[in-house]
């Protein structure tokens, strides 16, 4: 600091000397120009000027000493203040104005922080009080089917939801299709309403927000719309769609193989149309969840979709050869003969694609009077008794032999409890509706078709497929009977008569 004061003093003296030299130069110039000033006057003037300069230098010295004292005093005071405010002061570079500026800025910042904290504190208190008012209430702007449930507690909410539910039940679902209208009240289409869960979910959505998000939701009063939790009753919906489908569906026609007098022909299939059941279900569900449900009925324009054949005509053209056949005889002109013919007709032209399984019960059933069957003798526990459908087992037994001749093994087969007279023991196949079925799979690489003829007491069943289906093997079933037991085998022979296949099929025990 002493260096700064000394420097200030030297600069002042230098300025004074410069001023004196300039004045002397002016005097010299006046003399050279022949000024009328005498040497004596010149000396007097110089003396006066020097006296004035000395007086000025002395005054400057006194002034500098005073400034030094003031700077030292102010520095000491500001140093104390700087220490209090955490300001670093370097004595070699200190600037009084910088210290004052930093001190003033720090004080201003402190005031701003204080004001900010006060605002935050007051805001937090206000936010907390506002949110706490809705601790057990529904936030403003909460709607169910556009009905306001804001500011309500649980019991009030459930009461209002129940009223909304009753209003909804009277609304109708109107389904338009093929110029026909089907009306059904919503109460006859839904199973239940879950109002408690709806309330719990609304509260959960509110509680999962942080306090400031809750405040924004409350203050903004922005609408949030909910719908009742309504479940469609599956059985009621199925009854409705079945009723509609029965009226509007047009079944497709599958292509067909026609066999007549050992000749084969093919008939193309045709597209149909059917009710789009999935779209109908989704449309009803969407309508129930519409915000306008309380204002208007649900109107649905149901859709039809194309129903195309599952089998192509090209697939059927692979069937070009009779693979196997078997014939039995029956008494015609009676109830039993009628049942044989009825069952045979039901499996005529039946098509099986590769890997598809045949079920005799499904193909001819149900065995009841309304399906064309009559009462005739049937075997039950080894005895003949009168029963509905007597004679259908002759058709299954005839088909069983045809199937074995085609080299196909049954997947399910049972013999009668009493031996029959239309096929050898071990080569019969019985049916007991709901208990015993007769089944087999198409194990060929090609489709096959069953062809039947039941005329004048003669039943013939044929299996047709591709000429390469048997791969050159001829199959023949054989039963070996010992007492009431028959063991059935299937043998296969090549074109030269060599046995190339042998398999035990089943053991049949009779009473």
From TrEMBL:
Residues 1-57 are annotated as: Disordered. InterPro entries: Glycopeptide_resist_protein, Vancomycin_resist_VanW, YoaR-like_PG-bd. Residues 186-290 form the YoaR-like putative peptidoglycan binding domain. Keywords: Membrane, Transmembrane, Transmembrane helix. It comes from the Bacteria. The chain crosses the membrane at residues 111-128. This is VanW-like protein. It comes from Romboutsia ilealis. The lineage of its organism: Bacteria, Bacillati, Bacillota, Clostridia, Peptostreptococcales.
